[in-house]
Design a protein that fits this description.
By secondary structure, the chain is an alpha+beta fold. α1 (3-17) packs across α2 (65-78). It has five helices and four strands. The protein has a four-stranded mixed sheet with strand order 3-2-1-4, with helices on one face. It binds zinc ion. The site of zinc ion (ZN) has 8 residues, from α2.
Length: 152
């Protein structure tokens, strides 16, 4: 097993067992539900905005280890980011995860999101990994309608 593969599994196990920011957020400005019918992943992401900055972000719900750990890592990455920074990270994450398994990675641009590169080897899991990101994208765009991965 390669080092990156081992790290991938370790991060997913850790965040699945002990998800960060996994709670309600009563003072949230926006809450968007995300549902991945292929796998049964179902999460709600809550955002508290301070002007243009995501001052707090939490999630709740249930799903597979990949969807849950991806949502958990996402909340740790997006807290304190501006809308534009969050959208840029979503774009980078989405581009990486939908690239070919042997495509080169840019560690500087991806930071800790890079561990999810392992998902590229399992295309059916891409929707699990991007679900919470789609919910945030929808919240930032101002659309509070539930998102489903079926259209992506
Ligand atoms: Zn899933």
């Amino acid at each position: 097993m390669s080092e990156s593969r081992a790290l991938y599994e370790q991060v997913i196990l850790d965040h699945n067992r002990n998800p960060r920011n996994f709670k309600k957020l009563p003072e949230a400005d926006k809450s968007v539900e995300g549902f991945n019918p292929l796998c049964g992943d179902h999460f709600t992401v809550h955002l508290k905005m301070d002007g243009d900055v995501i001052s707090d972000i939490t999630f709740e719900g249930s799903g597979c280890a990949i969807s849950k750990s991806s949502a958990s890592v996402m909340t740790t990455v997006l807290k304190g980011k501006t809308r534009a920074e969050a959208e840029e990270l979503f774009h980078r994450f989405h581009t990486m995860i939908t690239s070919r398994p042997d495509a080169p990675l840019d560690p500087d641009a991806l930071g800790k999101l890079q561990v999810f590169a392992g998902v590229r080897e399992f295309p059916v899991r891409i929707k699990c990994a991007t679900l919470a990101w789609h919910a945030v994208h929808s919240a930032i765009e101002g659309d509070a309608a539930p998102v489903t991965t079926e259209e992506t």
